[in-house]
Design goal:
This protein is of the alpha+beta class. The chain has one domain. The protein contains two helices and two strands, in the order ββαα. The longest helix has 16 residues.
Length: 80
Amino acid sequence: MKAQEVMGTVDDKGQLSLDEPLVVEKHSRVRVIMLFLEKEIDEDDESKESVLDSLRKSFREAKAGKTKPVSQLWDGIDAE
């Protein structure tokens, strides 16, 4: 048995709607185990698209050579 984790929403009729399509090789039966969030996701959290945009920007900067040595990143950080 293989596992795949996806997020979804249960509507007022009890129907499950997945946020993204499942990645499957063929039609098959599945076992569904529901894990309900104890609190709603904070709307202040960065959206998935916002995080992806930030990663894309960082990747472009790295490809353009706009990087700093790791040793420089530690400057000013006091570890105890």
